[in-house]
Amino acid sequence: MFSVRQKREIAEAVQKLLRATNHRELPDGEIQFSLHVDGAKSWSWADIRNNGAVTTPSVNPHNEAQDDSKTGKRHVVDKTKYLPNAITFAQDGDTIECRTETMRELAERAHARMCPDKRLAFEVTKT
């Protein structure tokens, strides 16, 4: 259902979310997990594991062809609570489109804390 790149990005995001819980029972190193995603059709599904557990990923040409990984995508964020996901899944060259100037400022601060090496642009577009 997802390309190898998408699975790795999802696994990285899950790892960060789990680590952010600061749960005392989590290991110090990489957190082992398995995530199963059901698609809209019975034949559409994905199993995603932590990146360290997948040394040789299987490649499905159909899934790879569906991955439009070109940079320059726009991520429209309507609510502040969606900013972390937009920033996490954005790639170099992407734009985070915010609804207010305040949201744009929050997005820039979150970006600086979460992934300062990622080259993102931030814009305000009011509807």
Which key terms come to mind for this protein?
3-stranded parallel beta sheet, alpha/beta, single chain, 127 residues, 2 domains, globular
- First-residue to last-residue Cα separation: 33 Å
- Output the helix-strand order: HEEHEHEHE
Report the uncertain regions.
Answer: none
Tally of separate domains: 2
Q: What share of residues are in beta strands?
A: 15-25%
Shape: globular
Average of pLDDT: 87
Percent of residues in helices? 25-40%
Rg result: 16 Å
Q: Helices and strands: which structural class?
A: alpha/beta
Number of helices: 4
Strand arrangement, major sheet: 3-4-5
- Strands, count: 5
The largest sheet, given as strand count, sense and whether it forms a barrel, is: 3 strands, parallel
Description:
This protein has 127 residues and is of the alpha/beta class. The protein folds into two domains: 4-66, no CATH class; 74-124, no CATH class. Helices cover 35% and strands 17% of the residues. The protein has helices at residues 4-20, 61-66, 83-89, 101-114; strands at 34-38, 45-49, 74-77, 95-98, 121-124. The strands form two sheets. It has a three-stranded parallel beta sheet with strand order 3-4-5. Strands 1-2 form a two-stranded antiparallel sheet. Strand 4, helix 4 and strand 5 form a beta-alpha-beta unit. It starts with a helix and ends with a strand. The mean pLDDT is 87.
Summarize the structure.
With 127 residues, the chain is α/β, with parallel strands linked by helices.
